[in-house]
Amino acid sequence: MDNAELELLLRDTAPQPPLPTGLAGHRERILAETLPRRARRWRAWTAGVVAAGLLLGGGTAAMAAGGMETPWGWVADNVFSVSNGAEICFAGFTVSFSDGVNENSDIARETRAFVGALDLETLDTAQMEAEIRESNLTAQDENGDTVAISRSDAEVKQMAVWRVASNLTWKHLETKGYDPNLVGFDMAAEGCGL
Fold this sequence. Notes:
Helix content: 40-55%
Number of helices: 5
Structural class: alpha+beta
Shape: elongated
Largest sheet: 4 strands, antiparallel
Strand order of the largest sheet: 1-4-5-6
Number of strands: 6
Distance between the termini: 70 Å
């Protein structure tokens, strides 16, 4: 007797447990609830494909929504991308807080809501870009000698967006009565330095 025959013999001789009453109704309810979930999952998948197409399609694309996963695997509070010739310059922004500030505090919720709602694509960054370019031309090394810094247009744009978004957020927090010194920003970028 081999393993397959033994398994069949055991299944045939094993007692059959009684099925609980009302199981059919429970099964139908589970299946009915699953269908809307699948539809939501399909819509989310479709939205993801459209977003990926925008990011890879050249030109600029920005997405302003909290909880966005970055290409590096962490979740950003907002993201921004701009074409950099053959690549896409992508930057992910996260809000950080000073020690002692609870992640669920009023200032944390207000900051994340504001940053997540910013439309980074439409921010007026022209003045900040000019300031960055000027400071790149007049940068000094540790000896005090002038050393021009070369940055791509996409890198300058990404830096300007970050600075303008930071300043807007700090001003917003001040008007709401919060201490803006409790809030900082972390940023990671890829494809900006060509």
